[in-house]
Amino acid sequence: NAYGSTFFDRGLGARFWGTCQLRRDTQLSWIASFLDGAPYGRILPVTGLNQGLIGILATRRGPGDGSPGEGKRTAHNFTIDLRLSRGFQLGRRRLEASLDVFNLLNAAKALREADITSPTHLWRIPRNFQTPRSLQLGLRVNW
Q: Tell me, what's the pLDDT at 75?
């Protein structure tokens, strides 16, 4: 079971972005990101050794579809971020106001899952989630 992917080996990743110039010095920009799930394997904690507690991979760590003999992955991660901005000319200065929306779809997929195998540990309990939807206002002054 020592074979398999490292934790940081994503099977698939894609990013699409663009900008649309609207009227009255207004722009709409977006970025859509897709990341395949992170590979993981069940870890069996072994105690009573001279060097202390160590973890041994009990199952193969991804890639695979999770069937016997194949590795497992966490759920995929898909987010869309938007920016709406508008510029204003004030004499020789330029002002730009912006509104950023992060995680537009408000997805809450698990980014990490518990992988310890033991009668006292629950397996595949989510440890980290995507950051919830958030808004950010911005103001930029050029002179």
A: 77
Q: What pLDDT, on the 0 to 100 scale, is given for residue 63?
A: 65
Going from N- to C-terminal start, the domains of the chain cover 13-142
**How many Å separate Cα 2 from the centre of its chain?**
26
CA 126 from centre of chain: 13
Place of tokens 């989510």: 126
* CA 95 vs CA 22, 61, 104: distances in Å: 17, 51, 26
Q: Could you tell me the pLDDT band of residue 67, with boundaries at 50, 70 and 90?
A: low
What is the distance, to the nearest Å, from the Cα of residue 38 to the centroid of all Cα atoms in its chain?
10
What SS3 class is residue 98? strand
Tokens of 86: 């508008």
